[in-house]
Amino acid sequence: MLLGVVSFGQIGINNPSPKATLEITAKKTDGSTSEGVIPPRLTGNALFAAIAAGTYGPNQYGAVVFVTAPADEANRVGQTVHVDDFGFYYYHGDLDQWVKLGSGSTIYRTDGILTGPRHMTMDGNNLGFTGGRIGMGIVSPNPSAILDLTSTQTGFLFPRMLKTEMNAIANPAYGLFVFCTDCFNNSGCLMVNDSQDPGVPNWGSLCSSNIATGHIADLQCTNAVTAGVVHSGVALSGVSFTVPYTGGNGGTYPTASFNSTGVTGLAANLDGGSLVNGNGNLVFTITGIASAAGTASFNITVGEQSCTVTVEVDDFTASVVSLECTTATLLPNALTQGEAYTGTLTVPYTGGNGALYPQQSFTQNGLTFTLPSGTLATGNGNFVYNVTGSATASGAMLIPISFGSTPPCNVSTTVSPGTTVAMCMGNGTTRVWMAHNLGADTSLDPNPTTMVSSGLHGNYYQWGKKDPVANVSTPLSPIVGWDTVGAPIGSWGAVKTANDPCPTGFRIPANIEWNSLINNTTRITIGTFSNNGNGDPSNFTAAAVLTCGNSKLTFPANGYRRNGDGSLNARASMGSYWSCTETTVSYLVQSMYFSSTGGLSVSADYKPSGLAIRCISE
Hints:
Layout: E1 11-13, E2 22-24, E3 41-42, H1 44-53, E4 64-67, E5 87-92, E6 97-100, E7 134-136, E8 147-149, E9 160-161, H2 163-167, E10 177-180, H3 183-186, E11 189-193, E12 203-205, E13 218-219, E14 225-227, E15 230-231, E16 239-249, E17 252-253, E18 256-262, E19 266-270, E20 273-274, E21 277-288, E22 294-302, E23 305-314, E24 322-323, E25 329-331, E26 335-336, E27 340-353, E28 356-357, E29 360-364, E30 367-371, E31 374-375, E32 378-390, E33 395-403, E34 406-416, E35 420-426, E36 429-434, E37 461-462, E38 506-507, H4 511-519, E39 522-526, E40 543-548, E41 551-556, E42 560-561, E43 568-569, E44 574-582, E45 588-595, E46 601-606, E47 610-611, E48 616-617
Parallel strand pairs: 1-2, 3-4, 7-8, 9-10, 15-23, 26-34
Antiparallel strand pairs: 4-5, 5-6, 10-11, 11-12, 13-16, 14-16, 16-21, 17-20, 18-19, 18-22, 19-21, 22-23, 24-27, 25-27, 27-32, 28-31, 29-30, 30-32, 33-34, 35-36, 37-47, 38-48, 39-40, 40-41, 42-43, 44-45, 45-46
């Protein structure tokens, strides 16, 4: 063993010109070697045992150790009274105690006491907890409750807003609660969205004390008027009846549905709302398929009054010999996933008998097909359906056509994959994103329901460079000639640069845009994620899906290419996507990443790493 003594000097490790008594400089700064200083590692119980031996005293003032495990509770006395957690500690000679360096304790690992008011500005970012229950005012939350608020003196205050603000909530969730301060003539009311379609909310009242329960003097079913014709054996569309009432008190009534008797198979549906003060009308929509011709009776109850509405059901006498789906025409003939569509579908028929037929309607793949009521030709003719909506899935699509007892048929068409999608970005705004990763196969559905395929992974890019450095088929091993020099500052930015590889009208997202997308969408995962930190190179199925109303973006868990040699890592265990935002460290830039268990978040990566790109509109 060689011992060296340096008097009146300074020591440098990996540094020929130390600026302090001891200065240690990292041998490498690219992360390829383990750098740092490891102090003595001891358990809290070992430090407790040192008390009896008198190991630590004034001469050890300032000694630093790393405690790998806290002292047992019985051993937290004397010098180790505060050794209740792992972390760095130094010996305080005056106090004769080990004192923790920094603050290793957090609410996630140790109990504690809040010593004063605290305020956290979330700056538009989300905070989520999973895998347990939360209690306030109680130590052990009720096992049946995800949130248990316990108090005998205070209550729970729902978000309060004006009706216009409530109605402006973008894609409100099914079951979302708010308190509307000016609903029902400024009386205010707790409201719930009971619509399962986030694009068409239906706010219902939950008040009973300050909002009157609906009451009417007389429900006049004998004066009911039916709009449309009901035929047996045909799914109803566009048929309703209106019932007058007198003596309404302005109170509310709930959504209700009343099944038919006599002729069965029908239901009269009433949307919840408010009565007028005085006389008014209630409109019931009839749905279903009548079991036979005859009279359908609906026993309805609204506003504490009941009566029976009768609706005549006619035989469905209209008939055709055949439906000619193979010669049907869709105009316009181009359907694109996720894009609004308005057009017509014309289906020829033969052997019409000249009879009347009612309106018919059905929905397929997000599109609504409505055949208006009309009269058949005597002989050959055409059914012309009005088509509206947006196709939810791409690929081959079959449109089922039926009419009475005539054998049904299917019209075949193809829905092109959507290339862009408008996503929620907060404060009622949206931004258009590319539906696929840059370099992915855009002929594939960007949003499969159960798993993604390799064709959706796309290319890998180094930050600030226009050309891809790898694709999904590139071998897993290190890439010969991999460029380890990061691109210059400003190579990408929030204003599109010449090096930006996104197509015209699009660019690399900025950090703030990634955060806005993450914070204003809901997340699920599809496919099979790998629990191995290095991933599974043969698994292309895993992905994170962000949803906002009826819009969604799917991000394959593509892993990344290592900055040092370009080898693949973490496929199927994480997804990594570039941001154009740089950090204060020249070789680090922002990126978005996710794993199977954690939410999407923004982190930092080395510029020479190879990550995927998802473009946003300029």
